[in-house]
Each structure stands twice: as C-alpha cells, then as structure tokens.
Amino acid sequence: MKNGVVSTDSLQSPPNSLSAGLGMVAITTVAGALLPIVTRYGATHIDPLLFCSGATVVAALCALAAIGVRGFATLLDRRYRLPLMLISLSGSFLPALALVYGLQRVSAVSAVLLLQIEPIYSLAIATLVVGEAPSPRQAIATAVVLGAIVFAFWSRTGMDINRGALLVALTPLTWQLSHVITLRVMPPLRPITVTAARNAYAAILLATLIAIRRPSALGELANPNVAAILLVTGALVYFGGTLTWYGAISRLSLSWTTAVVVPGSPVLALVFAAALLGERAGARQLLAIAIAVAGILWLLLASDPSRPGAAAIEAIEVPAPPGA
Fold first, then answer.
1. 157 CB contacts (<8 Å, ≥6 apart)?
2. 3-state secondary structure of 133
3. Are 258 and 118 in contact (CB under 8 A)?
4. Hey, which of 10, 77, 269, 309 would disulfide with 112, CB 3.0 to 4.6 Å?
5. Inter-helix orientation angle 163-185/191-213, to 10°
6. Confidence band (pLDDT; 50, 70, 90) for 318?
7. What is the pLDDT of residues 104-120, one digit of tens each?
C-alpha cells in the first residue's frame, strides 16, 4: 500500500515496456490520423455540440466499463479528483469544442497541417515543466516544423489564418498541458483510469452543455448514420486513442512520443481525407507536410525514446479499506 492505495503488482516494471510502448504509439498514430477526419465530418454533417458530446459520452462509457466498480471509486478519490478533473478539462472538454468548431471553418487537410505545431508546444512544456532539456538538434527540428506551417499558410498579404484555424492550432496546447498533469499522477494511476476520468468528467460537462444550449440537436440521434459516427468516433478514436496514448507516455519520453505520433498521423490523415471526405492536399500543403515530417524524422534519429525515471503503471489501484 502506498498513500492509501493497495497495488496488486507493487508497481514493478513490466517486461518489454519499451516494445509495448512502441506498439501503443502505432495505434495512437492511427487514431490521431482519424481525429481530424471524423471531426471534420461531424462539424459539417452533424450538430457540432452533439458530435463532441456524443462521442465523449461513448468514450466515457467504454472506459467506465473497462475499469469496473473498484476503478470507479478511484475517480472519486479526493487525492486524485482535482488533477483528474483538470486532465479532463484540458485534455477532452476544451480541445473537443475547439477542434469541432475550428473544423467548421477549415478543411481536414488544413487541420492536419495546423496540428503539426504540437511538437513545439511539447518541447516548450517538456523543457519548462517536465525537465526534459532540449538538444540543439531538437531546437532545429522544431524550427523546421514551425517554418513548414508558416510556409503552408503564407500568402501575399501575410499569414492566412482565420478564427477556425486559430482554434485548431491551439488545440494541441491544451492536449500538452493535460499530458503534463497526467505524468504527475501516472503512476500510481493506470492509463485506463486516467482515460476513464478524462472522458467521464468531460462527458458530464458536454452533456450538460448540450442539454442547456442545444436540446433540439438530440433529435439527430435517431439518424442511424449519426449514431454510427458517434459510436465509431467515441470508441475507436476518443477512447482507443486516449488509452494507447497514455500507455505510450507512461513508458516513453513525452517529447519523443509526440515527435513520432505527430508526423506519422498526417501521412495517414491525408489518405483518410482523400478516401473518406474527398479532400486532397495541394502541392504547397504536401510540400509543407514533407518538410515537417523530414524535420521530425531527423530529430528521431538521435533521440532516446525512454522515459526518464519511468515506472510501471500496470498495477490495479484499489482504495484501501477503512483502517488499513
């Protein structure tokens, strides 16, 4: 028992932690590629508030079913309640709204480009908060990524950025802030517990918001296509992507994991955008993505994926019985 939490595994390091982390990186990369695609569809074919609230509720139900009764008690534990609420606010509630309303004004391809700014946020936060000091190579690669984004959106009159683009560009910042809080509670909490909290608290807020602001939008749930997209987005993208992301950053460096997922996702996202939405990137956008991916791949050749001081997160935390 530690801090009133009984662990069935004593937080011993799991075998093949690095390989497991890399596998989770692959899964979360696919989920990350699907995110702007399904969100763009939801923003243009479904009430935006219904889309993000419905998908979050589905993700919350999946996660709560996975943690069971004992895990649910951990979500209400007063020692973790505040950080878990902050993780939910910055990791799910705010980015879900920013992304869906941003994608009403920009295409999925443009969103893919704008989301490439995440390594810049990650590097800054990892340096200032987590203590993962950047190398000169990291700084150069980050500058390359930023230059690629500027190149893609630069016009004769300057940066062609509207309000929707700004919302999309700010979304990765809220994600990164939530990751910093997550690394402070995981361990002792497991990825599945944090995933459940992140989606459950956000689902309560979003469900309340739509009940107050857009109750008429709930009628769209009778449409089988709407229900299907909410189920797929909630279960596969929101729940599956979040769970594997937390599993990855519990084993690997935050900045390294971000640097793999962020360039890997747009390549797949361009394929998904063309196949599912009929959107195709122009020559300038393709070149910008190629520059960003090249910069991050160059960074990865000299980086260490290990998370400094990483501990196992496979233990099942159970609230200690009275008197323990």
1. none
2. coil
3. yes
4. 269
5. 140
6. very low
7. 888 888 888 788 777 77
Report whether 235 contacts 58 (CB < 8 A).
Answer: yes
pLDDT band, residue 100 (cuts 50/70/90): very high
The mean pLDDT value of the chain amounts to 77
The dihedral sign for the CA sequence 133, 137, 141, 143: positive
Evaluate whether residue 117 is within a structural domain: yes
User: Per-residue pLDDT averaged across 226-233, rounded?
Assistant: 92
Contacts of 295 by beta carbon, 8 Å cutoff, 6+ apart: 140, 141, 142, 143, 144, 145, 148
Is residue 24 predicted with pLDDT exceeding 90? Answer: no
**303 belongs to a structural domain:** yes
3-class DSSP state of 37: helix
Instruction: Quote the CA–CA distance of 307 and 180 in Å, as a whole number.
Output: 13
User: What is the span of the domain harbouring residue 161?
Assistant: 5-319
Contact 173, 95 (CB under 8 A): no
- Tokens standing for 68? 């069971």
Res 143 pLDDT > 50: yes
User: What is the number of domains present in the chain?
Assistant: 1
- Check if the beta carbon of residue 283 is closer than 8 Å to that of residue 136: no
**258 against 108, higher pLDDT:** 108
User: Do strands 158-159 and 154-155 pair parallel, antiparallel, or not at all (unpaired)?
Assistant: antiparallel
Does residue 324 form part of some domain?
A: no
Coil, strand or helix: which one is 318?
A: strand
For the entire predicted model, the pTM comes to 0.74
